[in-house]
Amino acid sequence: MKKIEAIVKPHKLEAVKEAVTALGVFGMTVTEVKGYGRQKGHTEQYRGAEILVEFLPKMKIEIVVPDARVPAVTDAIRRAAMTNSIGDGKIFIQNIEGAIRIRTGETGEEAI
Length: 112
Description:
Elements: E1 2-8, H1 13-22, E2 29-35, E3 42-46, E4 49-53, E5 56-65, H2 70-81, E6 89-95
Antiparallel strand pairs: 1-5, 1-6, 2-5, 3-4
Helix pairs in contact: 1-2
């Protein structure tokens, strides 16, 4: 099993959710986060003063899938989240050693 962690722009969350749901992925965890990458934030005007906004709002999406589903799910996320502009985000893939569904006690891929 793998955990796919995607950091995307907030307005792209619904598109990503629809894209992975269309593949049959129904469980995900979403967290509002702030961060920056190569763009190092941006400047805004506030009451006539220029302010540097270093940490930009993003959404972190976490999904656990069987190994065989990783390419399709990551491609769906990438396509749905892409705006072709700086700050589109990143996708990270990590190994998951195990999973247990608390309610039923199911383990492994049956738990996801």
